[in-house]
Specification:
2 domains, elongated, 7 helices, mainly alpha, 5% strand, Arc Repressor Mutant, subunit A
């Protein structure tokens, strides 16, 4: 009787060998284009900013109230039902589904529950950079520099006008001023005008240096 060859085949089944196409559960990082597309609307930016400081599930209505209050520059308690509705509907129908599609949140639309994912942290540096660029300190500094520049500019115009007025009065004979005295007065006025102009330029330059640091 011929012997039956019971040796196992040298080839291994596909179930015994690890797959070459192992897929990772971690989603790929968002591209800069994706991030900027998401952040291009105020309501998505405000919703993400709100969720960055929250852990666990958040009511969709709470997000809508926060975004609406910021949009109307008021508090949640002062919001009208119309203001709430104007923000709630676009968030419910468009903005939150968009964030869910990109894996930024887990959005349970029927229950109105939102859970931020780890991917939401990718937006933090962009939002922090935007906030620092529009900080109140910078706006106050710009306003101060503008006021100083206008003050110096006004002084220069006044001194120039005074010089012209003195010269015109002397020529027309309204009052007599010796030529040397008149020249000295006009020279002093223009020197003072030059000093104020340089001071204004120095102030503006120092303000720009502070902003660039």
């Amino acid at each position: 009787m011929p012997k039956t060859d019971c040796r196992s085949s040298t080839g291994t089944s596909s179930s015994d060998s690890p797959s070459d196409d192992t897929s990772s559960d971690e989603p790929e990082a968002l591209s800069p284009d994706d991030i900027f597309h998401i952040l291009q609307t105020n309501r998505r930016r405000d919703a993400i900013s709100y969720l960055l400081d929250r852990e666990g599930p958040v009511k969709m209505s709470d997000i809508a109230e926060h975004v609406s209050a910021k949009e109307h520059e008021t508090t949640v308690a002062e919001l009208t039902s119309t203001q709430r509705q104007r923000v709630y509907i676009p968030l419910y129908q468009s903005h939150l589904p968009k964030l869910d599609e990109k894996g930024v949140i887990d959005y349970n639309k029927p229950r109105g529950i939102v859970r931020p994912t780890e991917r939401i942290e990718e937006f933090r540096p962009y939002l922090e950079a935007a906030e620092s660029n529009s900080s109140p300190d910078q706006e106050d500094s710009d306003a101060d520099d503008g006021r100083l520049g206008r003050a110096f500019g006004g002084s220069q115009s006044m001194l120039t006008g005074a010089s012209v007025g003195l010269l015109a009065a002397s020529v027309s004979g309204l009052f007599v001023i010796p030529n040397l005295a008149l020249a000295a007065i006009i020279m002093l006025l223009f020197v003072f005008a030059t000093i104020t102009t340089n001071a204004a330029a120095s102030t503006t330059s120092s303000g720009n240096t502070r902003l660039s640091q």
